[in-house]
Write a structure and sequence with these properties.
The complex is a heterodimer of chains A (331) and B (358).
Chain A (H helix, E strand, L loop, with lengths): L25 E13 L5 E8 L20 E4 L3 E7 L7 E3 L39 E6 L4 E6 L4 H4 L5 E7 L17 E10 L20 E4 L2 E2 L11 E3 L4 E8 L5 E4 L5 E6 L2 E10 L2 E3 L4 E7 L5 E3 L1 E5 L6 E5 L2 E4 L1
Parallel strand pairs in A: 1-4, 3-8, 9-13, 12-22
Antiparallel strand pairs in A: 1-2, 4-6, 5-7, 7-8, 9-10, 10-11, 13-18, 14-17, 14-20, 15-16, 15-18, 19-22, 20-21
Chain B lengths: L12 H14 L22 E10 L5 E9 L12 E4 L3 E8 L6 E3 L16 E7 L4 E8 L7 H6 L2 E7 L16 E10 L1 H8 L15 E4 L15 E3 L4 E8 L5 E5 L4 E7 L6 E2 L5 E2 L1 E4 L4 E7 L4 E7 L6 E2 L2 E2 L8 E5 L21
Parallel strand pairs in B: 1-4, 3-8, 9-12, 11-22
Antiparallel strand pairs in B: 1-2, 4-6, 5-7, 7-8, 9-10, 12-18, 13-17, 13-19, 14-15, 14-16, 14-18, 19-22, 20-21
The chains are: A mainly beta (331), B mainly beta (358).
Chain lengths: 331, 358
């Protein structure tokens, strides 16, 4: 190979870098408690999820699955509205978006959609409405970055069963290829929803003495498991050599996960919707704890063909519980 | 023991204004906003003395768990925890350890104390001495001959915080760090009731810590909603405050601490067995991972009023034995900014807990 052939072609800047579909900033949600997530190997697990009522089935993330729920996009400084119409007690907690108390989605303190008798309210503010009455969550999108939402009623069960999604806030000018105003640019963007199931919880609808100990045995990425991850275009990464790839990683599991890109070095540019005070360059792995988000950036080398690995690990002894391995391929 | 941090800091115009503010808002008699800027007691005078004791802890769900605790000579201290040790960097610290357990015990501060253990036999006592390290939040805990790392002792509850301040700067986490108005030390503990039962039965050898899976979770000795009843765990603040929160994991699982309503600045971290150091990269966070035996010291700049949960996103840590908070459960805290808890608040929502005052 001659030296000149090592110089990758310049990427086309300004193209839409997204590898998934999204909705927003004004969203109508219903709750579906009859979702079925197909697993690698032919089995399946029952899941709950949010979807837009007008969206064709399955209508979850990327429109083509029930798990995770749809990705919501907003623009920094602009209004986001999510109207939830649920016949059962559910809420939307806007995790990391620093919304006010009324819009926080906590059954006992916030406005929500639920049976008021389900959870004793203390100091609830906002319009606590009854089942069957839609409730609109509103907030001004804060600093551009990666956030999450999830149901916050009997959270230990409802989040685990799949009622979660990502919120991406774009910079004030709405640009899709820049992490925040004045921040780094990129050519391709992936969002990774990390999640695990304890399959023994599949039939549980309310926390009880069967939810005493959480023992995850199904390891998910963007609602896929096992070999299905390698063929999922939202999870496995393809980019032209020289292109800058932005990966937003959010951990919805209850256990931490260690993320690597098959030996590629990357920069950690942001976490929890805020730029790092100092970008961490040349990293080879990143621990993402439950509820955390990290924004990672790398340049695709020429001819690269490998696999990233997400290692879910025990929250006590750090033993590897299970992995998922999206591919990373230069085109 | 050498020079101690003073118990009472000079009253400031800020404090006086707050007291007037709360009086003017809803009537001073009904309000319990702590007048002190921190949530722990500093013992003055003689060297602090702890007795390692078996204590049956009853939680809000009615469960009674046999635990080990370091009990203050002056009483049970915060929420049935001993008072935090608060010293200045460089202090020569001496404390008395008395052994009320049935087996030999010693007290260590990983990263600070050194040398082989000096076992205290049942009924005996000794003076533990060390020099206070770099300012930060540390963990003192018990060890036994069969448990040299103290993992069983910590899982049984035998631990207490050690807060080290920069000399002359009691309202900073480290010398030259940002100033804070209020301060909470939050020590998280977890219990696997199978271990507690085995140890209580004198049969700790029957339990393998490799199987440890906690099913009860507390902070500063309390579980929700008891956390609402104690100034140790009721996080009261006012918009404009800079509030220091010292997260310390005495338990045996990691704690990803999630703030509703706010981001907080991670100012300093300490790994298990290490010294505290300022955090320079991953600073503004809504979820702060704290590993076993480690600490994370954060400052929350309170920029909106409201009542917001603060909890581990290992959501089982918001349960007692699997039951989510309806009406009790786990290491859940409520953070209240410009919102006040009335005396006599009862779980179930019958108390007067008015919100968004002012």
């Amino acid at each position: 190979m001659s030296p000149s052939s090592l110089v990758p072609p310049a990427p086309v800047r300004g193209a839409d870098p997204r590898t998934y579909t999204s909705i927003g900033p004004s969203v109508d949600f219903i709750v579906r408690m009859d979702g079925v997530t197909n697993l690698d190997g032919g089995s399946a697990i029952d899941t709950w999820f949010f979807k837009e009522p007008a969206a064709p089935d399955p209508g979850g993330f990327n429109g083509d699955r029930v798990l995770p729920s749809p990705l919501i996009e907003g623009v920094e400084g602009q209004l986001v509205q999510i109207t939830l119409d649920s016949p059962m007690p559910h809420t939307i907690h806007l995790h990391g978006l620093d919304v006010d108390q009324a819009n926080d989605g906590v059954a006992s303190t916030s406005g929500y959609v639920a049976d008021p008798d389900f959870v004793g309210g203390f100091g609830r503010v906002g319009n606590a409405v009854n089942l069957g009455t839609p409730f609109t969550y509103e907030f001004i999108a804060p600093h551009a970055g990666t956030y999450i939402y999830h149901c916050h009623i009997d959270t230990v069960v409802h989040l685990e069963r799949g009622m979660y999604g990502i919120v991406v806030v774009r910079p004030p000018d709405g640009s899709l290829d820049r992490a925040w105003a004045g921040g780094p640019t990129f050519d391709r963007e992936y969002v990774w929803h990390l999640h695990t199931f304890d399959s023994s919880w599949e039939t549980i609808t309310r926390s009880d003495n069967r939810t005493t100990r959480y023992r995850p045995d199904l390891f998910m990425l963007n609602g896929r498991s096992g070999a299905d991850v390698a063929t999922d275009t939202t999870a496995s990464i393809t980019a032209a050599a020289g292109e800058v790839v932005h990966v937003r990683v959010a951990n919805f599991s209850y256990v931490p996960a260690l993320v690597d890109f098959g030996g590629l070095t990357f920069d950690v540019i942001a976490s929890d919707g805020r730029p790092l005070a100092t970008t961490l360059t040349g990293q080879t792995q990143q621990l993402v704890a439950a509820g955390e988000r990290y924004d990672l950036l790398f340049t695709m080398p020429m001819g690269f063909s490998g696999s990233a690995t997400i290692r879910y690990r025990d929250l006590r002894n750090r033993a590897e519980l299970g992995t998922v391995s999206p591919t990373v391929t230069a085109t | 023991m050498g020079r101690r941090s003073t118990d009472h800091e000079p009253s400031s115009p800020t404090v006086s204004r707050r007291r007037l503010l709360q009086g003017g808002l809803a009537g001073a008699a009904a309000l319990t906003l702590p007048l002190w800027a921190r949530n722990f007691v500093v013992r003055g005078g003689a060297a602090p003395a702890f007795t390692a004791s078996p204590v049956a802890k009853t939680l809000a769900d009615g469960s009674t768990i046999p635990t080990w605790q370091l009990v203050d000579a002056g009483g049970s201290g915060l929420g049935a925890l001993p008072s935090a040790l608060v010293v200045d960097e460089g202090d020569s610290v001496s404390l008395e350890l008395t052994n009320g357990l049935a087996e030999n015990v010693d007290l260590v501060v990983p990263g600070v104390t050194s040398g082989p253990p000096t076992w205290v036999t049942p009924g005996g006592s000794r003076t533990v001495t060390f020099t206070a390290p770099t300012a930060g939040t540390y963990l003192a805990h018990g060890i036994t001959p069969l448990d040299p790392t103290g993992e069983v002792c910590r899982a049984m509850g035998l631990a207490t915080p050690l807060v080290v301040r920069p000399p002359g700067e009691p309202r900073r986490l480290y010398s030259g760090g940002p100033r804070f108005d209020r301060e909470y030390t939050l020590m998280y503990q977890d219990f696997d009731d199978r271990l507690n039962a085995a140890v209580d039965a004198g049969d700790s050898g029957s339990y393998d810590m490799a199987n440890y899976e906690p099913n009860f979770f507390i902070v500063n000795g309390l579980g929700f909603p008891d956390t609402l009843q104690s100034g140790s765990t009721r996080l009261s603040m006012v918009v404009g405050d800079a509030v220091a929160l010292r997260f310390l994991v005495a338990g045996q699982v990691t704690y990803p601490m999630h703030f509703h309503g706010y981001h907080a600045d991670v100012e300093a971290r300490r790994e298990e067995g290490g010294l505290s150091a300022p955090e320079t990269a991953v600073r503004s966070k809504d979820t702060v991972q704290v590993e076993i035996g480690a600490s994370a010291d954060v400052i929350l700049n309170v920029d909106q009023p409201g009542v917001f949960p603060l909890h581990s996103h290992y959501v089982p840590a918001v349960t007692f034995d699997g039951i989510y908070l309806d009406p009790h459960g786990g290491s859940l805290l409520m953070l209240a900014a410009n919102a006040f808890f009335a005396d006599g608040f009862e779980s179930g929502g019958t108390g007067d807990w008015s919100n968004t005052v002012g």
